[in-house]
Amino acid sequence: MKHLRLLAAQLLAAVLVLTAFSGPARADTPEGDAQLAAEWQTAWDTHEFYKDVPPLPGSGRSRAQDCISITIDAPIQQVFSAYSNINNHLGMHSFLKRVVTHDAWTKFGKRNVNFTAVEEIPYEGSIVVSNTHAQQRIDLDEFYYETDTWSVPNVVTHQKIVFKKLSNSKTQVTEYLTFDADTTLIDFVVAGGVSSHEATQAGLKQAIENGNL
User: Fold this and answer.
1) How many CA atoms lie within 13 A of 199 on its CB side?
2) How far apart are the C-alpha atoms of 202 and 182, rounded to whole Å?
3) Predicted TM-score of the model (pTM)
4) Average pLDDT of the segment spanning 204-213
5) How many whole angstroms separate alpha carbon 187 and alpha carbon 170?
6) Distances (CA, A) of 128 to 12, 14, 121, 167
């Protein structure tokens, strides 16, 4: 636990330092959207987080994978439509405050969305604003979507979310999660990432089954 707290402090300290230099807008200031779009493009061009390339041996970076699943009592089309809409993830996790869409288009049966998820993370009495830059690709025919993300300090995730019809009124959602990060941070990144996705899963399940989505 002590080691995990140390990793958390290292990660949040890195976020705090780098966000102080980049000066992103707070999560409730839409006038900062143009800056977020510029940050997204820089991350895309610089880190190429859409390329699923494992870290090289000796690079100081590691990869870890996990898989989480949940069953939702609703038809697959309803679940897929609600779950794949990133805006519906707002409010499902306490840190996520805003989703800024930079571009969206549909081509060859896939819906592509470039966006930034803005999180506000409490840290030692202050709020750290963390921007996760992402591209989502939704396969409109095969009931799955993929999302690639990058965030400070050089954390990359590759996600594939698959929807399976169990019956006319039950759908299984399985998330295949891959995390790339500095070796000293990988355990913390995985623990935080998985818990965040589990919380979002549970929130979406409740909202869909209650008819709110």
Assistant:
1) 14
2) 29
3) 0.85
4) 96
5) 33
6) 8, 10, 5, 43
Tell me the C-alpha distance between 198 and 12, whole Å. Answer: 21
Compute the distance between CA of residue 136 and CA of residue 63 in angstroms, rounded to an integer: 21
What are the pLDDT digits (tens) for 166-175? 999 999 999 9
The distance from CA 29 to its chain's CA centroid, rounded to whole angstroms, is 21
Q: In what order do the strands lie in the sheet with 61-72?
A: 61-72, 170-182, 155-167, 144-151, 126-139, 110-123, 96-107
Query: Residue 6: helix, strand or coil by DSSP?
Result: helix
Alpha helix ranges (H) inside 70-172: 76-83
- The pair of structure tokens assigned to 38 is 């510029």
Taking only the tens place, the pLDDT of each residue in 177-187 is 999 999 999 99
Which neighbouring-strand residues pair with 139?
110, 144
- Pick from 189, 210, 81, 190: which is nearest to 138 by CA? 81
Q: Which structure tokens are listed for 46?
A: 């610089």
The single residue listed with the structure tokens 């095969």 is 142
The amino acid at 91: G
27's tokens:
């999560």
Domains of the chain: 2-22+62-209 (3.30.530.20)
- With contact defined as beta carbons under 8 Å apart, do 44 and 103 qualify? no
